[in-house]
Design brief:
Two copies of one chain form a homodimer. With 131 residues, chain A is mainly α. Chain A has two domains: 75 residues, Multidrug-efflux Transporter Regulator, Chain: A, Domain 2 (Orthogonal Bundle), CATH 1.10.1660.10; 55 residues. The first copy, chain A, contains six helices and two strands, in the order ααββαααα. Chain A has a two-stranded antiparallel sheet with strand order 1-2. In chain A, a hairpin with a 5-residue loop joins strand 1 and strand 2. Chains A and B meet through helix 3, helix 4, helix 5 and helix 6 of A and helix 3, helix 4, helix 5 and helix 6 of B. Chain A binds a DNA duplex (30 and 30 nucleotides) through helix 2.
Chain lengths: 131, 131
DNA sequence: CTTGACCCTGTAGTTGCTACAGGGAGCATA
DNA sequence: TATGCTCCCTGTAGCAACTACAGGGTCAAG
């Protein structure tokens, strides 16, 4: 059993974030000490680690919730898990493509700029309408 | 002169968003009709177009605010504009790199999965701690 | 004269936290 | 025993950048 601070350190999570996860129902309310302190067992540690790892991989809290409930059910619904992961992957691909397009536009804009000395700024011009 | 709805259509912006921009001081409060409707002139249209184009390029509202004030000043501070644009560019590069790393991790995870039929799910396993 | 599309203000919701404020618990030291 | 100090508690408000109401007013067409 460990305190919320210890759990936070173990999972690289801020204390407030842990309480937030509890509040939104992602983590079950843990046991309390006589002094009303939360105490967490290994299962809670595993669950929070799972959440954090999923978050690091960019899953939304809703997606994490879905993944957790699938593992909780133990129904081994691999198809659903796979779909969530693939959907997420597709979204990341989209974001990458968007950002690359953006980078291209931006770099064109920046390159057309004077570089800091000439008086009519092509960046502002590029952003302005009717040019 | 045009109504807020017309301005919204012309700039592909929701009416609520235009009012929001006004509330946070990005757009000046426009003139009103007798019936208290906002009316916008061409300058407002140009300004909102500038804002939207900047937003589309991923600039934050704070960055947009800075760009706008630079153009308002007319001081032709090209150096500052260039810096804002380059900073933004660097941030986008970072995001792209992050997402590509993420994609790699995710694809490794997904490929190791059964594909929807075998009962022990490697995705869940990959997300779980102590594996 | 009524219907419908538009507009108004003001407030609350979204995502995923983060940051207080104002207090209590628990342990070490003087 | 008193005093610090660190940790913990609850509850609320803030961030970005909108979006979505609720509950009303305005205006033109039929």
């Amino acid at each position: 059993m460990r305190s919320i601070g210890a759990l936070g350190k173990a999972t690289n999570t801020k204390v407030e974030t842990i309480r937030y996860y509890e509040r939104i129902g992602l983590l079950a309310p843990p046991q309390r000490t006589d002094g009303n302190y939360r105490t967490y067992d290994d299962e809670a540690l595993a669950r929070l680690s799972f959440i954090r790892r999923s978050r690091d991989l960019g899953f939304s809290l809703d997606q994490v919730r879905a993944l957790l409930s699938l593992t909780d059910q133990g129904t081994q619904d691999c198809k659903t898990v796979d779909r969530i992961a693939r959907d997420h992957m597709a979204e990341i691909e989209r974001k990458i493509a968007d950002l690359i397009a953006l980078r291209h536009e931006l770099s064109t804009m920046i390159e057309s700029c004077c570089g800091g000395s000439i008086s009519d700024c092509r960046i502002i011009e590029a952003l302005s309408p009717f040019d």
